[in-house]
Amino acid sequence: MKNTRKKILLTGGTQGIGEATLNLLAEKGYEVHFTYRSSSEKAKKLEAKFEGQVYSYKLDQGDPDAIKNADFLLEHDWDGIIFNAALGSGTVKEYAKSSDDLAFERDSAMFSVNALGPLWIYKKVQKKLLEKDTKSKLIFISSVGGGLAAFPYFTLSDGMSKSAVAFLGKQLAAENTHTLIDVFTVCPGATETPMFTSSTLSKMSEEERTAFDLAQPKKRLIQPEEISYWIEQLLKDESTVLHGAILDATMGLASRPGIQTEAGLSH
């Protein structure tokens, strides 16, 4: 039976894993409230596709004042929050301009959006979550780089910020062992998303891309829908036994990160 009662907050719902998750949850009967930063036209299309079931909100989660003023965060009793919105080493260049080769501005943006944004949102909704008499599921989306493994010559602040996300998930799991809040962290591997395309795939020739795909675990990239499937599973009541888990969703890349680094990849 489709669940038409659960309300889910999804940050970053207009592309990649976020969009795949939004579509899946809407099809399953969830009411989905999602954020976006700049893709207003895409947000409108998603609302129209699932009219009366999906709602969008413009939010730059790297801006603390924007989160303080985001009243919608407190207007609902969230049954689940999926902390998905993030910057990658390619998309950060659109978000923050750099004054020189040191690119301190982009490092700061990585942490503000990827690590502090989820923290700030949690702090804003924490009291309301604790007042609920039913379970809430918090799902943090980290990454294989930073969350599970280290990749030489990849953007340092990217991996550092994703490591911070994984730590936040672990810390909040420790603090909520005796509450109705369940916390999980998902670390996807090389996933075919606009973010990964911007940082890595777009730099490759057709031949290089073919060789890259074949070198990945299982000889292919992960698809966003594969990650969204497991995110939806974590929203179920039965997922409580996984409270505190940092889930390896990499098809083995975290176990053998050299698949990428030995090929001379960097970003």
TrEMBL record:
Please, which domain of life does this record's source organism belong to?
Bacteria
Q: Which CDD domains match?
A: SDR_c (cd05233)
Q: Where is the signal peptide?
A: none
Pfam families noted in UniProt:
adh_short_C2
Q: Which GO terms describe its molecular function?
A: oxidoreductase activity, acting on NAD(P)H, oxygen as acceptor
Q: Which UniProt keywords apply?
A: Oxidoreductase
* SUPFAM superfamilies reported in the protein's UniProt record: NAD(P)-binding Rossmann-fold domains (SSF51735)
InterPro entries, per database record: NAD(P)-bd_dom_sf, SDR_fam
What family, per the record? Belongs to the short-chain dehydrogenases/reductases (SDR) family.
Protein name stated in the entry: Short-chain dehydrogenase
Q: Which organism is it from?
A: Peptostreptococcus russellii
